[in-house]
């Protein structure tokens, strides 16, 4: 029966062959083998809690919600880094940054790295399994110079409005004689600078706001789109950020919502084209982000801390229609991470990944059981990390059972900082419990410290096996994109005090 189900799914025997509630099984190798092709949509800088699907109160994303109703929605997915390059490298390789070697250190001159030579990328793996591979990305922190293109037959790198990226993607997917494919779409549409179309500006910003950012925006919106995307809007976008009022910050945040609403219309173009064509019966569509965004939630802008608004990301998996009808949809609350995406995709398409050395795990059991009661995944510790200049300063965090411990160390002055949060009682991460000697804090502090130490050691061992990452060329085009994103010579990460320290959390007056 199982073989029959799998075969029918591959060749499409029609819809009358499953009884309600029947669930297709994973075969003996742990492969679902139900999925012909995979489309991975990476919406850069999209924090989960700005989507209605994740509880947001504003209508930013009706189309993502519509996708979510037919998909498996992971409500507790986290990125391995709050920065584009290391996070995508983890997404593409199922390795942590300490092992794959890609870190972001921006400043007056950006420092870029190449993937460690021993890393097996998802695209290499799927290509070897006979799939056609293509990526339509936006460059900047995601370039061929960094080795991010490894395994892709087509690597198309242009920083432009998301609609242009969608055009290219759909042209490739719907080319005649296209075989089984793995395609990636990546866009900086909701990344700063936030310049949504006028219609979305009007829908999401307060018309009474008359601050300096309004006139600045108006002048930017006068520019031809290509100029705006090619560097005409860049570092000066953040001028005066140290003096922004609450109203200014609200305006920026509203613009971000407007960008999401525009992005959502383009997501609709993609999913409608794929799901209403024949591809809908064979293609899995996975929607994800590489990190979130901060609007002074914890004292800064953009993304260079490890708080939840920066590492909690959407992860939505729409299976081919047949699996959806068989019950592969619903909500999974178990904590998962971006390193789990590659093993999941490999499992879905039946590409055995047991010899890859990947650090993540397949989420297929959770996809299969999402509509049911079973807790198909055991909770595992989640790790996320961040390296920033000056120093450099290295942050590492572990999250387990609703507790979050963050360790920071700055190399040049050899100073250490620590934070401990109980996300169950303090989801906003305001009360640093690291010095609390009452309640569960001491025990959790000890336990999470040990987990993080073991994590760091494991990364070092893995890195020794995978080999040294090299430094990557930063060409003119990449540099322009980095400038436009606000990383070069401008307000890198919105650092307010120049110390690079995490902000916005204090020791509580009383420990719980
Ligand atoms: Zn990013």
Reconstruct the topology from this structure.
Elements: H1 2-11, E1 37-43, H2 62-69, E2 72-78, H3 84-93, H4 97-100, H5 122-128, E3 132-137, E4 154-157, H6 162-173, E5 181-187, H7 198-204, H8 212-221, H9 225-232, H10 246-275, E6 283-288, E7 294-295, E8 301-302, H11 308-311, E9 312-318, H12 321-325, E10 330-332, E11 336-337, H13 341-348, H14 364-369, E12 382-388, E13 393-400, E14 403-410, E15 415-422, H15 441-466, H16 476-484
Parallel strand pairs: 1-5, 1-6, 2-10, 2-11, 3-4, 3-5
Antiparallel strand pairs: 2-9, 6-9, 7-8, 12-13, 13-14, 14-15
Helix pairs in contact: 2-10, 6-10, 7-10, 9-16
The chain binds zinc ion (ZN).
Oligomeric form = single chain
Identify the overall geometry: globular
Uncertain regions spanning at least 5 consecutive residues: 1-33, 489-499
Radius of gyration of CA atoms, rounded to a whole number? 22 Å
- Structural class, by secondary structure, is alpha/beta
What is the makeup of the main sheet?
Answer: 9 strands, mixed
- In terms of DSSP E residues, the strand content is 15-25%
How many helices in DSSP terms? Answer: 16
Query: Terminal Cα separation, in Å?
Result: 55 Å
Q: Report the average pLDDT across residues.
A: 88
Helix content: 25-40%
């Amino acid at each position: 029966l199982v073989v029959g189900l799998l075969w029918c799914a591959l060749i499409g025997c029609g819809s009358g062959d499953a009884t309600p509630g029947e669930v297709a099984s994973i075969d003996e190798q742990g492969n679902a083998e139900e999925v012909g092709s995979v489309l991975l949509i990476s919406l850069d800088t999209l924090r989960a809690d700005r989507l209605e699907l994740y509880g947001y109160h504003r209508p930013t994303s009706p189309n993502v919600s519509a996708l979510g109703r037919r998909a498996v929605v992971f409500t507790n997915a986290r990125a391995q880094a709050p920065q584009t390059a290391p996070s995508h490298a983890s997404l593409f390789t199922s390795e942590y940054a300490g092992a794959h070697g890609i870190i972001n250190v921006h400043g007056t001159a950006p420092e870029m790295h190449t993937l460690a030579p021993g890393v097996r990328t998802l695209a290499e793996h799927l290509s070897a399994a006979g799939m056609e591979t293509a990526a339509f990305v936006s460059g900047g922190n995601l370039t061929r110079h960094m080795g991010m293109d490894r395994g892709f037959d087509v690597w198309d790198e242009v920083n432009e409005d998301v609609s242009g990226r969608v055009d290219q993607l759909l042209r490739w997917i719907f080319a005649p004689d296209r075989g089984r494919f793995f395609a990636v779409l990546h866009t900086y549409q909701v990344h700063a600078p936030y310049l949504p179309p006028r219609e979305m500006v009007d829908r999401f910003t307060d018309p009474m706001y008359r601050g300096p950012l309004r006139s600045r925006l108006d002048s930017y919106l006068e520019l031809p789109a290509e100029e705006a995307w090619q560097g005409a809007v860049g570092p000066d976008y953040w001028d005066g950020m140290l003096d922004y009022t609450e109203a200014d910050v609200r305006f920026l945040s509203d613009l971000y919502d407007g960008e999401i609403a525009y992005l959502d219309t383009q997501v609709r173009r993609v999913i409608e084209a794929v799901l209403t064509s024949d591809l809908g019966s064979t293609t899995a569509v996975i929607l994800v982000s590489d990190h979130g965004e901060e609007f002074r939630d914890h004292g800064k802008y953009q993304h260079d801390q490890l708080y939840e608004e920066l590492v909690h990301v959407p992860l939505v998996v729409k299976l081919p229609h047949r699996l959806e009808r068989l019950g592969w949809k619903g909500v999974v609350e178990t904590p998962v991470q971006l390193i789990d995406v590659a093993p999941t995709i490999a499992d879905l398409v039946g590409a055995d990944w047991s010899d890859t050395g990947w650090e993540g795990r397949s989420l297929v059991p959770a996809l299969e059981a999402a509509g049911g009661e079973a807790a198909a995944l055991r909770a595992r510790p989640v790790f996320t990390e961040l390296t920033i200049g000056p120093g450099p300063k290295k942050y590492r965090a572990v999250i387990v059972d609703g507790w979050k411990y963050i360790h920071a160390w700055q190399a040049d002055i050899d100073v250490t900082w620590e934070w401990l949060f109980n996300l169950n009682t303090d989801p906003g991460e305001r009360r640093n419990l690291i010095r609390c000697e009452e309640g569960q804090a001491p025990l959790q502090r000890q336990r999470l410290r040990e987990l993080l130490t073991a994590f760091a050691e494991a990364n070092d061992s893995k890195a020794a096996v995978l080999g040294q990452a090299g430094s990557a060329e930063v060409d003119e085009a990449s540099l322009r994109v980095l400038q436009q994103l606000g990383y070069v010579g401008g307000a890198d990460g919105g650092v307010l005090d120049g110390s690079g320290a995490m902000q916005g959390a204090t020791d509580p007056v009383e420990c719980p």
